[in-house]
Write a structure and sequence with these properties.
Strands 1, 2, 3, 4, 8, 9, 10, 11 and 12 form a 9-stranded mixed sheet that branches. Strands 5-7-6 form a 3-stranded antiparallel sheet. It has about 300 residues and is of the alpha/beta class. Strand 2, helix 3 and strand 3 (about 65-70) form a beta-alpha-beta unit. Helix 2 runs parallel beside helix 3, helix 3 packs across helix 4 and helix 5 (about 100-115) crosses helix 7 (about 185-190). The two termini are about 30 Å apart. The chain has a domain at about 5-95 and about 160-165 and about 225-290: Glutaconate Coenzyme A-transferase (3-Layer(aba) Sandwich), CATH 3.40.1080.10. It has helices at about 5-10, 30-40, 55-60, 85-90, 100-115, 125-135, 185-190, 205-210, 245-255, 260-270, 275-280, 285-290, and strands spanning about 20, 45-50, 65-70, 95-100, 120, 140-145, 150-155, 160-170, 175, 195-200, 215, 220-225.
């Protein structure tokens, strides 16, 4: 059926040590089922990039899958900081390149356009730039404008090995629709060597063709399509389901310490066979039905 595979098969295509771009933003459209499966399969040494760090990145760090993170800061909003990411940075077990959100979007844009670098003004005079120049000087530089002679700060493009994009609707070829905020996901997909789509709904291609203007990611960029309802739980997917506040609080409390994080992983990741077992464990159909989005409001 086209490119449709299970989440386990899709994750098995991700080698150790590659660069993975994630679509999530704080507690929205995070690729949580993907993150759980990466941890279950014992994949290590990943570089993870994300414009604003989301819950998927944090649990991947907590599960020991990430060696390096390239991001524009981030948190769980009202649910607090990403404890696993922060702890990894503080302990020296996680290499971090921290940019502004805008400069991350610029780096993906440069990658999507095939540019060797991209000029930017906004980092000038910032502590962020000073830290980057001290820790990762190969990622930032300056060039002379050939027209004016002005000195311009430039950034190296981001070209992930694979982008993992959580979407609402896709067909079996990977033509994908994103409702609501898209953030930098379109640029991520265009910049990456290949794309993995995780979709809440799988529809036929004829349905997609009725509204071609809604397609954000075309199928020719996509290597794998995973049809997996509630794959972003406990984060939200606009027009599908709201975030699970109770479970996010549970994770936030557990992730404050390495021991608490391990207990959470033992129960909700290692303690179940797959995503379906996880959904049963967190309350099954009855609980998930309570999270289903209002068709008019979208959340």
């Amino acid at each position: 059926m086209g490119k449709v595979v299970s989440i386990a098969e899709a994750v098995a295509s991700v080698p150790n040590g590659v660069h993975v771009a994630l679509s999530g933003f704080a507690i929205a459209r995070s690729a949580m089922a993907f993150a759980h499966e990466v941890i279950r399969q014992g994949i290590k040494g990943l570089t993870v990039s994300q414009c604003v760090a989301a819950m998927d990145a944090d649990i991947l760090v907590g599960g020991g899958a990430v060696e390096r993170i390239v991001y524009g800061g981030g948190s769980r909003g009202r649910f607090g900081q990403h404890h696993c990411i922060n702890r990894g940075i503080e302990s020296g077990t996680l290499i971090a390149e921290e940019y502004s959100s805008l400069s991350m979007a610029f780096r993906y844009l440069a990658g999507s356009l095939g540019l060797p670098f991209i000029p930017i003004r906004s980092l000038r005079g910032s502590d962020i730039l000073q830290r980057l120049q001290e820790t990762t000087p190969s990622e930032v530089s300056t060039v002379d404008d050939p027209f004016t002679g002005d000195d311009w700060l430039v950034l190296k493009p981001l070209v992930p090995d694979v982008a993992v994009i959580q979407v609402q609707v896709a067909d079996s070829e990977g033509n994908a629709v994103i409702f609501g905020a898209r953030w930098e996901n379109e640029e991520q997909a265009k910049a990456s060597k290949r794309v993995m789509i995780i979709t809440e709904r799988l529809v036929d291609t004829e349905t997609i063709r009725r509204s071609p203007e809604q397609v954000v990611i075309p199928g020719f960029r996509v290597s794998h399509v995973v049809h997996l309802p509630f794959a972003a739980h406990p984060t939200a997917v606009y027009h599908a389901y709201d975030y699970d506040a109770e479970h996010i609080r549970k994770y936030a409390e557990a992730s404050k310490t390495p021991e608490g994080c391990q207990k959470y992983l033992d129960k909700y990741v290692y303690g179940v066979e797959d995503h379906w077992g996880y959904l049963e464990l967190i309350g099954g159909v009855k609980h998930l039905n309570d999270l289903t989005a209002d068709p008019d409001l979208g959340y």
